[in-house]
Amino acid sequence: xxxxxxxxxxxxxxxxxxxxxxxxxxxxxxxxxxxxxxxxxxxxxxxxxxxxxxxxxxxxxxxxxxxxxxxxxxxxxxxxxxxxxxxxxxxxxxxxxxxxxxxxxxxxxxxxxxxxxxxxxxxxxxxxxxxxxxxxxxxxxxxxxxxxxxxxxxxxxxxxxxxxxxxxxxxxxxxxxxxxxxxxxxxxxxxxxxxxxxxxxxxxxxxxxxxxxxxxxxxxxxxxxxxxxxxxxxxxxxxxxxxxxxxxxxxxxxxxxxxxxxxxxxxxxxxxxxxxxxxxxxxxxxxxxxxxxxxxxxxxxxxxxxx
Length: 307
Ligand code: GLU
Hints:
Helices cover about 30% and strands about 15% of the residues. By secondary structure, the protein is α/β, with parallel strands linked by helices.
């Protein structure tokens, strides 16, 4: 059994990331498995090695440590590009000249739950003339995977079977950087990952991953999409909600044992001031994982936050 935690090193981890890491660690250890750390640093402008160091320290404060095999997506661009080449040889890849704005404006009426930023397929069937006009515009293309908007059922441990409709996902962005959806599938397969624990904001995009796995002959890991951590307004946790990182919490006099105790209780483990994740192992069961979002405790919240 191999799990992974895959943060983007663009800043400190927030309590939502920490909670996901705790769950991923518990799932792996409960099955005598290993949890790998992978830095998803495709965003070259905001990823920094000092954030990697900080994130490793934050995880260590909760007792989560990793072996030496930490990988960085920024060091694997050739591998991702080789996979695009392989898909291109099967005529599954096409160039796309659409701007972000055009994509937002183009309407799409999928038959099932749509995915964020779904692409309507504008450049899929361009006439030769339209294509050459776009080529001449000088705008570098992104490269997309040709699909038939297939429906996939994500068999998720938390949410149960969840239907998703896929689109023609980007494989390489127009600045040449591989897309998250490609890199995550290649890495999970290449690292032999058998279980993926992550936030449920990524649930509906997982059909894209199943599609790529099928095309590339990879096996599909077990998916555990964890309901998000939210602020008092029910919105996804953000800085404005209050103390959202270990450092913020420490500044309020809330130490890591108290934080870990709250995270533990939020996933159904009754424990007071645990000294590291290993103290949660005996009380953990994936079946107890709440199916709804978790609101941060009131003493972590911004005073007077009433939005
Ligand atoms: N890198 C993503 C994040 O930090 C996680 C993606 C994944 O676990 O597949 O939210």
